[in-house]
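Summary of Year 1 activities. Much of the first year was spent building the evaluation harness for sequence design. The harness presents a backbone, in tokenized form, and records the residue chosen at every position. We chose the following record to illustrate the format because it has been used consistently in internal testing since the harness was completed.
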């Protein structure tokens, strides 16, 4: 599953982390929740959340895991992982509960991964890549989850081999990747609108790889040595309901396109966007995001 698309840089992910934590991860975590439900994480000792982003479900996992169990999370973007840490600190300090998404940059900057507050709950955060898990020992984890990362990395084989290595015999893998392009409107409608309204001349391929079916995923896991594969697809609608704070959904690519456009072009773009959102609302149509899921086991 080698890919030729251009991926976001670490800097892009760092810059995107505030919006991602505040607005986007609420949508994508639906898939992560499904993975967790399938993997019975409440019963195990060591859990790894690979490419955890801003750790949207980590409070839930900390509450539901066994007290002595360890939750490890890492991401390529330090700003993402620090946001996961800042959220956890708020949660543990029971401060401003209900506003876990509204982190200040100061809170984020102050996060120290070695903080005693994290050690007490067996919560371990770090910066790293799914393609190189050398920070973890062989056969360390009961569960490896990776939600929406494999489609945006350069070498999926390497990532899968590393996942296999760090899992215990009998350990479980759970990953999700983007599904069929036509069923992932939420991911590309803004770029498509930018083309339609003349802000963008050509369709650039970028940001990730869509899958037509689950064959590649199954082959990849089987080749790596995983058994008892379960694969399915699932759709989650993005909660794009109005123009209120619509900029929160603008990813780095759209921001660059808008920044390079004239005021007149931007006005046309915004007007078309408003019409599109209103039409979707009128028809009760979702902004769909489809994923392929894979659950598999390392042989005992
Ligand atoms: C779509 S987000 C998914 C985040 C999280 N898993 C979730 O469920 O919301 C993709 C994440 O992958 C991270 N990422 C990109 N390349 C990575 C890599 N090679 N290793 C680890 N994380 C990576 C990004 O920084 C970003 O946080």
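For this record, the design step produced the sequence shown next.
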């Amino acid at each position: 599953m080698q890919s030729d698309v251009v991926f976001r840089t670490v800097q892009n992910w760092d810059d995107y982390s505030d919006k991602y934590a505040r607005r986007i991860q609420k949508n994508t975590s639906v898939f992560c929740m499904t993975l967790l439900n399938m993997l019975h994480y409440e019963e195990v000792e060591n859990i790894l959340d690979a490419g955890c982003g801003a750790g949207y479900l980590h409070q839930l996992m900390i509450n539901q895991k066994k007290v002595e169990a360890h939750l490890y999370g890492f991401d390529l973007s330090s700003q993402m992982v620090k946001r996961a840490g800042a959220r956890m600190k708020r949660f543990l300090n029971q401060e401003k509960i209900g506003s876990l998404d509204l982190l200040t940059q100061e809170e984020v900057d102050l996060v120290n991964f070695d903080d005693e507050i994290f050690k007490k709950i067996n919560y371990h955060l770090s910066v790293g890549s799914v393609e190189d898990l050398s920070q973890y020992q062989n056969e360390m984890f009961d569960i490896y989850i990776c939600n929406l990362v494999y489609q945006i990395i350069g070498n999926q084989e390497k990532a899968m081999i590393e996942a296999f290595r760090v899992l215990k015999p009998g350990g479980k893998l759970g990953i999700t990747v983007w599904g069929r392009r036509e069923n992932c409107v939420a991911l590309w409608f803004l770029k498509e609108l930018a083309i339609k309204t003349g802000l963008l001349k050509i369709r650039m391929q970028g940001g990730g790889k869509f899958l037509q079916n689950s064959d590649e995923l199954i082959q990849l896991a089987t080749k790596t040595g995983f058994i008892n594969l379960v694969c399915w697809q699932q759709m989650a609608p993005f909660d794009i309901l109005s123009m209120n704070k619509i900029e929160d959904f603008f990813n780095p690519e759209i921001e660059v396109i808008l920044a390079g456009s004239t005021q007149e072009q931007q006005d046309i773009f915004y007007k078309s966007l408003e019409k599109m959102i209103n039409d979707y609302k009128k028809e009760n149509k979702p902004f769909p995001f489809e994923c392929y899921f894979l659950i598999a086991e390392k042989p005992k």
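The domain at 10-184+207-237+290-297 is CATH 3.40.50.150 (Rossmann fold). Quantitative recovery figures across the full test set are reported in Table 2.
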